[in-house]
Write a structure and sequence with these properties.
Blueprint: H1 2-18, E1 19-22, E2 25-33, E3 41-50, E4 54-60, E5 64-75, E6 78-84, E7 87-89, E8 95-97, E9 103-109, E10 118-127, E11 132-142
Parallel strand pairs: 2-11
Antiparallel strand pairs: 1-2, 2-3, 3-8, 3-9, 4-7, 4-10, 5-6, 5-9, 10-11
């Protein structure tokens, strides 16, 4: 009986780490890669789905001095990263944020991100009527050598 209780608790904890939902918005597959010693930036990937047209307008994390929404684009054969003020979310269409495209940057890390830790984030989503919703997300930190394919469920 005790073993079943432990298994249920572990499963519930896993769901808490990989999925967050607040009203109109669901976040799944939130993860970050561990950082090397002295590395001051990190990236968080996730899948976010809003039931209504909306935009991510802010990101905060106690793990970093600044958190930003970024995009990667090709410009004359050169990959460039730039900050976005907001990221549109189309109703009921999952938006995947990750390497090589839109993603969340953690700048000025307060400590190294270590495998098996979690990174806490708060996303602020604004809807067409200007109402906002804050979504708390716990992103699992994967080993520095983990490849992207290991992060999808």
């Amino acid at each position: 009986m005790l073993t079943n209780t432990k298994c249920c608790f572990a499963f519930a904890a896993l769901l808490f780490v990989t999925q967050a939902q607040a009203g109109e918005v669901t976040v799944t597959d939130a993860w970050s890669r561990a950082t090397a010693p002295g590395q001051e930036i990190g990236m968080v990937s996730l899948v976010i789905t809003s039931q209504k047209d909306a935009s991510i307008i802010a990101v905060t994390s106690p793990a970093a001095t600044t958190s930003e929404i970024h995009t990667m684009t090709m410009d004359n054969g050169v990959m460039k990263m730039r900050q976005l003020e907001s990221l549109p979310l189309i109703a009921r269409q999952p938006a995947t944020l990750g390497p090589g495209g839109n993603h969340l940057m953690l700048i000025g890390l307060k400590r190294a991100l270590k495998a098996d830790d979690t990174v806490t984030l708060t996303l602020t989503v604004q809807f067409a009527d200007k109402s906002t919703e804050k979504i708390n997300v716990n992103a699992q930190v994967k080993a520095l050598t983990a490849d992207q394919a290991q992060h999808h469920h």
